[in-house]
Amino acid sequence: MVAQKKHFLLVTVTLQGHLNPMLRLAQRLVSKGINVTIATNNHVSSHRMLKSTRAFTNNLHAAAAAQNTAPKPPGISLVFFSDGLSLEFDRNKDVDSFIKSLRTTGAKTLSTLVADFIAQDNKFSCIICNPFMPWVADIAAEYGIPCAVLWIQACTVLSVYYLYFKNFNLFPAIDENPDKSLELPAVSVLQVKDLPSFILPSSPPIFRETLSHFFQNLDKIKWVLVNSFAEMEKEAVSFMGVLHPIYPIGPLVSPFLLGEEEKTIGSVDIWDAENSCIEWLDKKPPSSVIYISFGSISVLSQKQMDDLAMGLKNSNKPFLWVIRTAEKNSEKKGGELPAKFKEETKEKGLVVTWCPQEKVLLHQAVACFITHCGWNSALETVVAGVPVVAYPGWTDQPTVAKFLVDVLKIGIRVKAEDEVASAGEVERCIFEVTDGAEAKEMKKRALELKEAAKKVVADGGSSDQNITQFISEIFLRRVKGVEEKENDENA
């Protein structure tokens, strides 16, 4: 029997919150002897990703050469497919057109790409896709390739979506009353304000359509890899494991956060980080700085910006605030810093357009993280052992905020009216998470989670074992398939 080629195709979109988990999964797979090709839609920021993947693979090959190792170790390669839109098209501004073009033109060009690989006698052993590209499962089925999905959000969020799309009767008359409560299996009692926004009536239909497609296609997806770990989301992992094969393989964070060698990619930043902020942090006392970042997509309104700025100023604590510059031609301009704010707080604060978040969170000067509760940032703060002030916006963020605060108990959530937390509320939350009665317990739990996260990804840890089992099942499945085919031919 011909030796099996160990080559996986990972498919994602060129958005930072989607790219990084897939890149980190690729690193883990390579460490298990799998060659990885990452396919993503062509985009103006693609060159950053290409540079990072080349650096990673070149480092592996250089290390092998130094040790006279042959053949070359497995690595990561990158290919692009057209999503049918121009490079300059603002995919964040017109998400509806982007998703529709991706699932039509993008599906055709990706299918052609897979066919080209097969024509070169390079059939993939498995395709792993992003959950917001459910049509990839159809392509995998077309070519007879096993398909998995990397769920890039919390397992708790996966369980809420699963129940919504498979057991809608559990969600009677969801409306815009934020305080209305729902009781769901394996999930804390949720209010409407805690639900993922994509299932609310106010959400653009394209998101609900895409998720509905994903759960309709779930039968074509053999494995759901979850960017989480069982020890952190015990109830959700146990509940979902009964309904569908799932493998918690996270946290998929930068190796830097886990204390691993810097031979791997780490992260891809779509924007240039201002590393000067690390020098600024070096001059601050331990556990003194409030770090604020709302991620790569979220934009604050002027009212949100004004009140957050006033709350920070009144807290009288040092702060590092990431305020991303609005992209050219984008409608999401967002609010601006109040006049004279920088001048009034120049002795206390530093405002940057982007920063190396992993290094910031690990810095001893950081006391807490005011976060939008995107899952990547949530995992990074968990692995860094930093408590949070949760200030969620849309999509999965309200559910993650509920999880961080009420389940993990590593922070406090702002009380907002019309999505705005007052200056007094911001100041109160900063005090509670840094100097309040529960502050020491929050920090203690955060540090306990940090240690748990390191253990699960280490050799023999639960997440490490899950990746190994996933890979074993793919090749056991292929061996059985080949044996059955040979038996049929010899009969």
From TrEMBL:
Matches recorded under InterPro entries: UDP_glucos_trans, UDP_glycos_trans_CS
Gene Ontology molecular functions: abscisic acid glucosyltransferase activity; anthocyanidin 3-O-glucosyltransferase activity; quercetin 3-O-glucosyltransferase activity; quercetin 7-O-glucosyltransferase activity
Organism superkingdom: Eukaryota
Protein name, entry field: Glycosyltransferase
Extent of the signal sequence: none
Xref: Pfam families: UDPGT (PF00201)
Pathway recorded for this protein: Pigment biosynthesis; anthocyanin biosynthesis
Leading EC class: transferase
Single GO cellular component term: cytoplasm
Keyword field contains Transmembrane: no
Record's catalysed reaction(s): an anthocyanidin + UDP-alpha-D-glucose + H(+) = an anthocyanidin 3-O-beta-D-glucoside + UDP
Keywords carried by this UniProt record: Glycosyltransferase, Transferase
CDD domains membership: GT1_Gtf-like
Gene3D superfamilies registered for this protein in UniProt: Glycogen Phosphorylase B
GO biological processes: anthocyanin-containing compound biosynthetic process
Family the UniProt entry places it in: Belongs to the UDP-glycosyltransferase family.
Enzyme Commission number, as recorded: 2.4.1.-
Coiled-coil segments on the chain, per record: none
